[in-house]
Every structure is written in C-alpha cells, then in structure tokens.
Give the backbone structure.
Amino acid sequence: MVSEVLVPALVFPTVDKNAARKPYRIMNSPMMNCKQNRTTFLLLLILTTNTYCQESLNYSIKFRSGIGISMGDRTDGSGITYSAGFQKEIWNERFRINPNLSFGQYSSKFVMDARDEYFNSTSLETILFYDLLKGKKSSLFIGLGGLINNTRGLLGTGGDFDGPQSSEYINNYQIAGYVGCGLRFNAPDKRVAFEIIPFNFHIGINDFLESHIKIGLEIKLQNIK
C-alpha cells in the first residue's frame, strides 16, 4: 500500500514589473496637501489685501484758484489766491479730508479810503468736506476746517487815508477757521473732478477775514472705476 504524501504548495508573492517604473505620487501625501493649502491661503490673502488697498486708498491731488478779499487789523486788499494739496475720502465716499497750502497776493488798488498796501497771505489749512446732497455725478457739499495764516507785505504812503506818512512792513500770524459751500462734479469713471465754490470764508484773530470765489480741479490717484 502506497501512502500519499501531501506537500504543501509554496506561494511566492508576485512582483509587478511595471511598479518600479511608476513614479511615487508625492502630491497625494498629507504633508504636501498641507503645504499646498497654506500656499493657496497666502496667495488669496495677498490678492485680497491688494484689492482692498486699491479700493480703499481714495487719494487725489487738488488744485484751486480764485479771487477775493483779505482783511486784518492793518491790511485791507483784494486779489487772487491759489492752493494745492492732497485729498482722502474717509467714509462712504461722502467725507473728504483735504490738507493744503494756499497763497494769495493782494493790494488796496480797488479799496476806497485805504493806504497803498501790497501784501501776501500764506495759509496752511486742513478742511473736512461733507456731501449734503449726492447724485451719481455731482454733489452739494459743505466744508469746515482750521488754518494758520501768515500775512506779510508793505504798507505805503500813498492812497486816501489819515495816518502815518511813512512806509512800514508787516509780518503777522493768526489762527483762523474755515467754512465753505460749493458744487462738485465727479464722474466715477473719470480721473478728473471739478468744483465750483462760491462761498469760502476764513475768520480768525486780529480781525482776520478772507472771502473768495474759487474753482477747483481734482486728479484722482486711486480707485478708478
């Protein structure tokens, strides 16, 4: 009798010959996914910040010129004035802050009962404007502010006046307030805006008073829609 001997079969693991040729997919690793998420987040943060800055930095350069009068305790004249400064929209496109430097040249040529006067008026001022009525392309605004003024020039001996018969120089400093009202024409898709300001008043110490009619030009630097 011949007995059967059972020999267990040996099972060897199979090896895929193409496995070595397939690159290891690093992109699917959790570490790489984390790095990708952080990079994406940083890119989105940079783009969002840049967009926010472009929309919020509503700066412009502002120029004004006009005619008017300037009076003080020793001066009384009429003439022209110029100003230049920056402007920044600070809330809801209705409030604007405008620091500027203004310069005026005046004489008593058209003033009755005054001595010959030739003087300059220089002011460093900051004005806050607010749009009372606002449309798509125009608005009615008011302005309030303050300034430091320097008036200097020559008081001559000519003219119609009763006083000293000798020339003298003046160099006065005064603090004053500003109040004004006007119209602004501003198209959102244009880089230039215009202003007509018929009421501009500076009222301060030493009987200081200036009143002007002005026109303004505004050149936008940011937020061009």
